[in-house]
Amino acid sequence: MMDQPSIVELVEAVRNFLEQRALPELKGHTRFHARVAANALGIVARELTKGPVAATREHERLAVLTGRDGTLDELNRLLCTMIRDGRIALDDAHLLEHLEHSAHDKIAIDQPGYAGLAD
C-alpha cells in the first residue's frame, strides 16, 4: 500500500522549494512575490494544523458568552448583536478574555513570529 503525503506535507514541500531553491535565484518583484507566496503557504499549513483547535476553543467560549449553541458564524453574529444591544458590556471580563484568546490564536496562525505573541 502506498502512503500519500498529507495536505500539510504537500504545502510545506512547495514552501520549502520556494524558500530554499527558488528565492535565492530570483530578483526584484519576482523574488518579492515568491516570498509572499511562501509566507501564504506557511499560513495555510498553520491554519490546517492549528485552525481546528482554535475554532473549537472559540466555539466553546462563544457558547458560554452567549448562552446558546450554534455554528461558529452564528455565535459570532449573536455576540455582535448582544454587544450592540447592550446585553454584553464592552468591558465585560469574559468578553475581554474571549477577544484576547481569539486574537492570540489568530496571530499564532497568521504571524507566529510577532514579538507581542509571547506576552
Fold and architecture overview:
- With 119 residues, this protein is an all-alpha fold.
- It has one domain.
- It has four helices and no strands.
- The radius of gyration is 19 Å and the shape is elongated.
- It starts with 6 loop residues before the first helix and ends in a 9-residue tail after the last helix.
- The mean pLDDT is 95.
Observed structural traits:
119 residues, mainly alpha, 4 helices, elongated
How many helix segments? 4
| Rg estimate, integer Å | 19 Å
End-to-end gap: 46 Å
Which residues sit in consecutive blocks of at least 5 with pLDDT less than 50? none
% residues in beta strands = under 5%
| Biggest sheet overview | none
Overall domain count = 1
Structural class call reads mainly alpha
Helix-strand pattern:
HHHH
Helix content: over 70%
Number of strands: 0
Entry summary:
The protein has 119 residues and is an all-alpha fold.
Outline the fold blueprint:
Elements: H1 7-22, H2 28-66, H3 72-84, H4 93-110
Helix pairs in contact: 1-2, 2-3, 2-4
